[in-house]
């Protein structure tokens, strides 16, 4: 039995075999606080919580959190190997067997070409689950771009729900100009491509917010290739990448067949 609860403020449990799911839990401080009591008073009860921008919402509202009583799982876009499982199970089995052998001899050209082609399709499609399902069902790119554009639009519409009104214009400007910065052969992110009068200090909060949400990956330049890389990174030289290659391709309006 599954009881699906959307940010409720209270609930009654009628079955020991119930799986309780809190969706968008960051919208309800009472639901967040209830996790502590589930752990203490009903430790055998299975509770699953899902929340977009959870870290941002926690910082914004100053909510308390039951530290040490919750296991975290971060959902990221579908990986290539996961995609390959659905795209070509036999090719995935061959790749798994190759990795298990650990001798890493050269992959025969016939399999190498198939893997490269599959990887190119994966990069163009991206790792959004519904997008992948649509592509595998129809093998057409129109559905992929339609869904990716919907996802990109929904992200931008959600900005105003989670950030201060003063930062909204800056976040939107960065979001719209991500591909412009990547298209230029620059060694680092250029604020002037956002706005000719833009200054780093004015946009730092907006970039931090986008990075914290996971919508963009802020990659710093590493001047010396030694471990740990973070120690040798240059905090003033970075680039911003979208969280998913398929979304980035759609945002660039690149034709996947060329």
Q: Topology of this structure?
A:
Layout: E1 2-6, E2 19-23, H1 29-41, E3 46-50, H2 54-61, H3 80-87, H4 89-101, H5 109-125, H6 129-138, H7 141-162, H8 168-183, H9 200-213, E4 216-222, E5 233-242, H10 245-252
Parallel strand pairs: 1-2, 2-3
Antiparallel strand pairs: 4-5
Approximately what portion of the residues adopt beta-strand conformation?
Answer: 5-15%
**Secondary-structure element sequence?**
EEHEHHHHHHHHEEH
Shape: globular
- The CA-CA distance between the termini, in Å, is 48 Å
Main β sheet profile: 3 strands, parallel
Structural class: alpha/beta
Which regions are unreliable across 5 or more consecutive residues at pLDDT < 50? 1-10
Could you give the order of strands across the largest sheet? Answer: 1-2-3
Task: Please identify the top-level CATH class of the largest domain.
Answer: Mainly Alpha
Q: What is the count of DSSP helices, taking H or I runs of 4+ residues?
A: 10
Please give the share of residues in helix.
40-55%
How many domains is the backbone divided into?
Answer: 3
The CATH topology of the largest domain is what?
Arc Repressor Mutant, subunit A
- What is the CATH architecture annotation of the largest domain? Orthogonal Bundle
- How many beta-strand elements? 5
> How confident overall, as mean pLDDT?
83
Indicate the radius of gyration in whole angstroms: 22 Å
């Amino acid at each position: 039995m599954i009881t699906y609860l959307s940010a409720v403020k209270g609930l009654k449990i009628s079955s020991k075999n119930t799986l309780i799911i809190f969706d968008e839990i960051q919208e309800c401080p009472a639901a967040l606080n209830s996790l502590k009591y589930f752990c203490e008073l009903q430790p055998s009860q299975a509770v699953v919580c899902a929340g977009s921008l959870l870290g941002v919402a926690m910082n914004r509202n100053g909510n308390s959190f039951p530290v040490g009583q919750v296991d975290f799982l971060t959902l990221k876009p579908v990986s290539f190997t996961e995609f390959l499982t659905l795209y070509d199970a036999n090719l995935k089995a061959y790749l798994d067997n190759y990795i298990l052998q650990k001798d890493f001899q050269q992959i025969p050209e016939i399999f190498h070409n198939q893997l490269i082609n599959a990887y190119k399709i994966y990069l163009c499609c991206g790792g959004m689950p519904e997008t992948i399902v649509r592509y595998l069902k129809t093998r057409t790119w129109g559905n992929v771009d339609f869904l990716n554009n919907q996802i990109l639009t929904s992200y931008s519409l959600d900005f105003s729900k989670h950030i201060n009104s003063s930062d909204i214009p800056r976040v939107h400007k960065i979001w719209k100009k991500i591909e412009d910065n990547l298209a230029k052969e620059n060694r680092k992110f250029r604020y002037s491509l956002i706005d000719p009068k833009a200054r780093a200090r004015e946009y730092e909060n907006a970039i931090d917010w986008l990075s914290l949400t996971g919508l963009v990956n802020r990659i710093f330049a590493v001047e010396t290739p030694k471990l740990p890389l973070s120690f040798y990174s240059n905090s003033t030289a970075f680039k911003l990448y979208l969280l998913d290659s398929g979304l980035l391709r759609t945002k660039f309006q690149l034709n996947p067949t060329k």
